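Predict the holo structure. Ligand: zinc ion.
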Amino acid sequence: MSFTDIDARVVGERMYALCAELYPICRSITGEGIRETLRRIRSHIPLEIHEVRSGTQVFDWTVPKEWNIRDAWVKDRTGKRVIDFQKSNLHVVNYSVPVHRRMALADLREHLHTLPDRPDWVPYRTSYYKENWGFCLAHNDLMQWQDGEYEVCVESQLEDGSLTFGEFYLRGKRTDEILLSCHTCHPSLCNDNLSGVAMVTQLAQLLSGASLEYSYRFLFIPGTIGSIAWLALNEAKAARIRHGLVAACVGDPGNFHYKRSRRGDAEVDRAAIHALRHSGQPFEVLDFSPYGYDERQYCSPGFDLPVGSLTRTPHGRFPEYHTSADNLDLIRPDALAQTLSVYLSVIRILESNACYKNLNPKCEPQLGKRGLYRALGGLADAGKAELAMLWVLNMSDGNHTLLDVAERSGLNFDLTHQAAQTLLEFRLLERFEQAPAENGGGTRR
Ligand code: ZN
């Protein structure tokens, strides 16, 4: 697998353009918005679009009724729209039931949501599992409203239908899978939602052209209920997932964050942290917690899949989170491209990580006579390539993977992988297929 020909500027712009294209669509956990989003993604990758009927029992949850909306507004006494869904889909509480009535501002207030501490921003609110309705607006706008009567209208439908999700399965040499999952249920919000959607789409496109060891499963699902539905309907497939990452909040210029899987030291955890450590970018590692995105479901104890989450600024830690300010100004093409490059590094590690056996384990093989060691002796330190060969030879006892070598030596994984390839060519090393049993985080190939 090689991605050396990626032009960061081009892919960054491409991902940003997809975010911009999808931004106006009013998405939710069900309905036409998510379907339209998936159709547009399908013009980039051969996505399969699945429908799960309302009322379907998925573990402890029930697939909800399908929600669709045509319009929503609040009019003042003069008939002027003081809230208009056509201007921003964030103005209506997602999953609002239909309503059309006149009411006094005092009564209407309990259905209005603002952010007094961010008075120019419109909050994003949902009411998926409790039938309700409401509007969201800038606090400063609400301050302008006069007391008196208002006419409110939500032209929505909440009826039996289905939940829609997208899935793209890319076959590699092995049936073992790498899962890449993103949520596609947020309306006009960029970093939390669209950045992950665009990056996973781009990743799928790039991997489609590569020769792959693992098979890949890309999921575009509504948050929580989507992963629960997928897991409930695909328990047998879930058992093939060897590594996984949940992608969200990947387009802002903030520092990287890696949230460990529940296992904590799974191979994907170590690969992600190694990739970040060698990315030259500042990053933070977070322990698993049962709060966040769909890793909560993948890492529930009945599945306990090795799935972490690689983000930039995590959910809830940027002020624009779940507000109208999480818009196209918050995300940047270069930030998206940088994140994509880290994801590709993680994938490169997982694809190439393996256990090897030194075929000349009694003392070092003489590298010089094979032309593998610099001819000139006495220099203060070995070159990095030579050092990597020495590390790989020393640790290749059948109990350590290349990632173990990279971690212990402090060398970049790619360097240890290149060293192993050279040593294989010179028949100083052989691939060791047996997985090291005691190494919980090691390869299971
Ligand atoms: Zn969110």
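Residues 436-445 have pLDDT under 50 and may be disordered. The longest helix spans residues 333-352.
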